């Protein structure tokens, strides 16, 4: 009995020490997270409204091989005037449901999209606190949601009501002061000043060792072209066979196409390109060879020219 008591006492002591060590490690991780919190750092591009109100949309299917790796790519690329662009939630009352981009793009509750892709990251299983969207979202001059958990610590892309495009890390005060008409939270700043920024983006520490960076998968991104137009880039892939670009390859292709800045949004099985309500790319919603379109919480939209 005495030995049993001693054994219990010893185990209790070990458990207490282990708990203390775990608590200490947790506190260190918390401090490290606070110290590594992204610092507000963004770029601004000015533009003037389209003189004729046209979207200036030009879309193409681009195929080739990455110069750095020789791996093949199949990409869907569109440029257009910034004043014709919107971020949209999948539902007319916000991020309250998931819907296929091809359906959302021609929904009657907003201006019909001439061109669209999937949008921001989202909760696939169920809404969290009433929303499927992850991050901040302004749409057509209206605030859809502010997400304090990741909205200010991940790269964002937005368009203001006074004709500016912003890309980068923006804290709550910055977001509140800009007067956004459109804003979406992405994840990683791919291209900055026409150069690869993968290793410098603040929201992915130690980029070279990050599985998210190196994973070969379909990708979708939004940005600004060197000529001042906006651009959308979606690259097809299939995760189960490592088809599609890693983020280094994504940045490489974007630079070759003329992007000056590029922000990565949701990818993988969500990546899709839609033109005039029809899927033109080859989405793989189950990350397998089967071609199918995933239902998403938001989308990018190049508005159709008014008649």
In brief:
By secondary structure, the protein is α+β, with helices and mostly antiparallel strands.
Order of helices and strands: HEEEEEHEEEEEHEEEHEEHEEEEE
Strand order of the largest sheet: 2-3-15-14-16-12-13
- Oligomeric assembly: single chain
Radius of gyration: 22 Å
- Percentage beta strand: 25-35%
Number of helices: 5
The count of DSSP E runs of length 2 or more, i.e. the number of strands, is: 20
- Helix content estimate: 10-25%
Q: Kindly, what is the distance between the CA atoms of the first and last residues, rounded to a whole number of angstroms? A: 91 Å
> In this structure, how is the largest beta sheet organized?
7 strands, antiparallel
Mean pLDDT: 90
Shape: globular
Structural class: alpha+beta
Can you tell me the number of structural domains?
A: 2
Low-pLDDT stretches:
3-35
Keywords:
disordered N terminus; seven-stranded antiparallel sheet; alpha+beta; single chain; 32% strand; 5 helices
List the helices and strands and how they pair.
Layout: H1 2-35, E1 41-46, E2 58-65, E3 72-80, E4 85-89, E5 99-100, H2 101-104, E6 113-118, E7 137-139, E8 142-145, E9 156-160, E10 164-169, H3 172-178, E11 180-185, E12 189-192, E13 195-196, H4 211-214, E14 219-225, E15 230-235, H5 247-257, E16 259-264, E17 273-275, E18 278-279, E19 295-296, E20 298-303
Antiparallel strand pairs: 1-10, 2-3, 3-15, 4-20, 5-19, 6-17, 6-20, 7-8, 7-11, 9-10, 9-11, 12-13, 12-16, 14-15, 14-16, 17-18
Description:
- This protein has 307 residues and is of the alpha+beta class.
- It folds into two domains: 1-35; 39-303, no CATH class.
- The protein contains five helices and 20 strands.
- A seven-stranded antiparallel β-sheet has the order 2-3-15-14-16-12-13, with helices on one face. A six-stranded antiparallel β-sheet has the order 1-10-9-11-7-8, covered by helices on one side. It has a five-stranded antiparallel β-sheet with strand order 4-20-6-17-18.
- The longest helix is centred in the N-terminal third of the chain and has 34 residues, at 2-35.
- The N and C termini lie far apart (91 Å).
